[in-house]
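User: Teach me something about this protein's shape.
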Amino acid sequence: MKKSAFIRAFLIPAAVFQAGVFGGGYGTGREIVEFISSNGPMGGLLGILIVAIAWGLALAISYEFARRFKVYDYRNFFKRLIGPFWLLFEIQFVFALLLVLAVNSAAAGFILHDLFAIPNLVGVTLVLLSIMALTYYGRSVVEKSMAFWSVTLTLVLIGYCALVFYFKADKLSHTFATVASSSDSILQGFQYALYNMGIIPLLLFCVPHLKTRGEAITGGFFAGFLGAFPALVFHIAFMAEYPAIIEEEIPTYAGIRALPLPYLLSVYAIVLFGLIVQTGVAFLQGLNERLDSWFLELKGHRLGQWSRASISGGAVIASILLSNLGIIALIAKGYGTLAWVILVIYALPLVTVGIYRIIRYNNATVQSDNAADTDLIGMK
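Assistant: First, the predicted structure itself:
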């Protein structure tokens, strides 16, 4: 495969998904210890496998569905998939958007304050300005930014994992040899996969890069497994501090601080800040793509650069203000149920209606081609 084809079909979709899914909850390790590592060493590995397969399957089908029907924003995607019920995803998306932006802004502010003594307000402002700048320049810059941070994250995680094996090999082997696994690992892995699956329809702006069904399917599974790669590294590293790590508010900090390399925490904090910004950008780029298509249908033109940036900035500011009113806390109480909402309005329709319509489309295309060939033979 040519280098350009690899970048188009594998690197860009995978980087967009990894950067989009890797936010404050994932990056701090809090979600990993709750859904994965709490099930023990082998149970956690099984859970990660479930997550990777579920994400890969959802991405592959979504990419092919979007490619076939040329629907590159979540509004038109769901109109094709579930018809008039598409509005259900929109409602869910509003709640998820406010929650994710508020959580990520707060996490970014905490990181900069805790490690670099930067005031929390400055950290939140940096998040706001970074998101506005990236969405101002649009899809191409967003994709390149996500690719950069995804590659950087992967390199840092590989180094982190190697250091854990070097310094904590005895603790790791003892944990894997002595700790039993939980029977909840499959269910919790599936729930975690669903919980984060709702971001996929927001990332369809990378699908135009995919030219064939093979690229959509392989690119989807590659993205799913790359998205699960940080969970694998975190889980293995956490087992060196198990079970105390389960109670840590920010497990990745605790795990890195346990290594005799204090500078590594600063490096990871910078990478995590960058990825937190990318998660916000992913949500807001998805929103802008949806509004873009709507403006094109309604007014015959797309959003301008300042409009995209202003929408992004307004959403971030609104999420921060609402969090101070306690609305985010109210939403967070039902956050676990979002997994089952995504199952009903996205995952199940995708693997039933989505696959059926792709197959029907393919069959119709074959019949049309055969009919055209017959006409040509008759003309001869």
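Now, about its shape. The longest helix spans residues 338-379. DSSP finds 15 helices and no strands in the chain. If you'd like, I can walk through any region in more detail.
User: That's plenty for now, thanks!
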